[in-house]
From TrEMBL:
Classification via NCBIfam families: UbiG (TIGR01983)
The organism's taxonomic lineage, starting at the top: Eukaryota, Metazoa, Ecdysozoa, Arthropoda, Hexapoda
Keyword Kinase on entry: no
Record keywords, A-Z: Methyltransferase, S-adenosyl-L-methionine, Transferase, Ubiquinone biosynthesis
Gene3D superfamilies membership: Vaccinia Virus protein VP39
Alphabetized InterPro entries for the sequence: SAM-dependent_MTases_sf, UbiG_MeTrfase
HAMAP family: UbiG
Cross-referenced PANTHER family: METHYLTRANSFERASE (PTHR43464), UBIQUINONE BIOSYNTHESIS O-METHYLTRANSFERASE, MITOCHONDRIAL (PTHR43464:SF19)
Gene Ontology biological-process entries: methylation
Protein known as: Putative methyltransferase
GO cellular component, one term: mitochondrion
GO molecular function, one term: 3-demethylubiquinol 3-O-methyltransferase activity
Amino acid sequence: STVDANEIKHHNQFAKEWWDKNNGPMKALHAMNDLRIQFIRTGLMNVNKISEEDCEKAKYLQNLKILDVGCGGGILSVPLARLGADVTGLDASSELIEVATNYATSNLKPDINLKFINTTIEEYSAPHKEEYDVLILSEVIEHISMKEIFLQYCIDTLKPGGSVFITTLNRSNLAWLTAIVFVENVLNIVPRGTHEWSKLITPEELRHYLKNCGCKVLQINGILYIPFRNVWCFVPQNTICYAAHAVKQI
């Protein structure tokens, strides 16, 4: 399995505070949503999956099936569903899937198409081959050891011509200094031990893995977290964190 039991154990300890947007251990992830959704929207416009006219509607992701792998407590799945997409969130942690399901049940209208499933991508992939228009791997791949195998299982669920959106940390000295030493160990904004240096992935490595899995990378954007303001922004350099958009070749 590509799932690391220690990663699940680490994230489970924050389950009760997962949806505390302002002061909880996941506040940086909550703050990332605007940037993530903007990146997804722009990427889908660039491949003509949605139009400018669509984006004027409240539910501009309608008619798109999205798979959010490693969805945790549903921080990104929920707003994507609110934008009209038919969203499935997968996570190997039963505790976090319970958090996500409880939040959705309590806060979403019945007409929202969103379901959460406690399973691994290995188990889910084969019965759902080429089912999804969009695949999301946000702040996930840096927690996986066997990255290319994991990516292949994920991309198998994507329709030919479908888009995969990934956000992650670069394996660079600057990323180690800022994201791990400063943000985790000094400021304690992200829980200590969340990121392991050896599991981080460079844009070049990600591009190589995606190519091997039959995808073409269209965009890699540098992104930066500003901890004192709890906001994210796009930056020209991808030295610390980055967002990638790739398309599965037909």
